[in-house]
Specification:
Layout (H helix, E strand, L loop, with lengths): L13 E3 L4 E4 L4 E4 L6 E4 L2 E5 L2 E6 L2 E5 L2 E13 L2 E13 L2 E13 L2 E13 L2 E13 L1 E14 L2 E14 L3 E5 L1 H6 L1 H15 L2
Parallel strand pairs: 5-7, 6-8, 7-8, 8-9, 9-10, 10-11, 11-12, 12-13, 13-14, 14-15
Antiparallel strand pairs: 1-2, 2-5, 3-4
């Protein structure tokens, strides 16, 4: 993919993997190095289609049928894609997956996450193994292994192993294998799992 400006020249574009990875410098921020007075453009948007990448760092990242080791951005959109770890303010995953997700707001549509840490989590026919969120909304069929949240709002069915929450507003069925008492018995084991996952993937 090649980006052109109005006069046909490339503007702040960086291509790799046969032109499929693009970093676009729309409103380019310039970083000045005192030594040598060299000016370097900072990538604003990165788009990856049909290829894999290592670490991706940009203001906005869009991936389609691609993969990455780590993504660090203000906004991330994944479509039929995957990443080992994802750190962002806003994440939108559609038919995608990640091992670890850290975000202020995350929306998962037919997607799966192993470990999610968010302020607000929205699930639509998606699966999460372990989730810690301030507020969780579930639509469609949501499957969660362990969910710790302040509020759950469900318009569809919620199926979980352990649910630790302050309030539940459900329009569908909420099926939990272990209640609060049983969850307390499993607390030590869960703490160990969380500790190991954080050590494995970092924060």
């Amino acid at each position: 993919m090649t980006d052109h400006n109005h006069n046909g020249a490339r503007a702040g574009g960086v291509d790799a993997d046969e032109g499929q990875f693009v970093s676009e410098g729309g409103d380019v921020q310039l970083q000045m190095k005192q030594a040598g007075r060299r000016m370097q453009p900072a990538a604003e948007r990165s788009t990856l289609r049909g290829n894999d990448a290592g670490a991706v760092n940009a203001v906005q990242v869009t991936m389609e049928r691609s993969g990455a080791e780590h993504i660090d951005a203000q906004r991330v959109t994944l479509d039929h894609s995957g990443a080992k770890s994802l750190s962002t303010q806003t994440a939108e995953l559609t038919d995608s997956g990640t091992v670890k997700l850290s975000a202020d707001t995350a929306t998962l549509t037919r997607s799966s996450v192993i470990l999610a840490q968010t302020k607000e989590l929205r699930l639509e026919s998606s699966k999460v193994l372990i989730a810690q969120s301030g507020r969780t909304a579930v639509a469609g069929d949501g499957r969660i292994g362990l969910l710790q949240t302040g509020l759950v709002e469900a318009t569809g069915d919620v199926n979980g192993l352990v649910l630790i929450t302050g309030s539940v507003k459900a329009g569908g069925d909420v099926n939990v294998t272990f209640d609060a008492v049983s969850a307390g018995i499993l607390g030590a084991a869960i703490a160990v799992v969380l500790f190991l996952l954080r050590r494995m993937f970092g924060r």
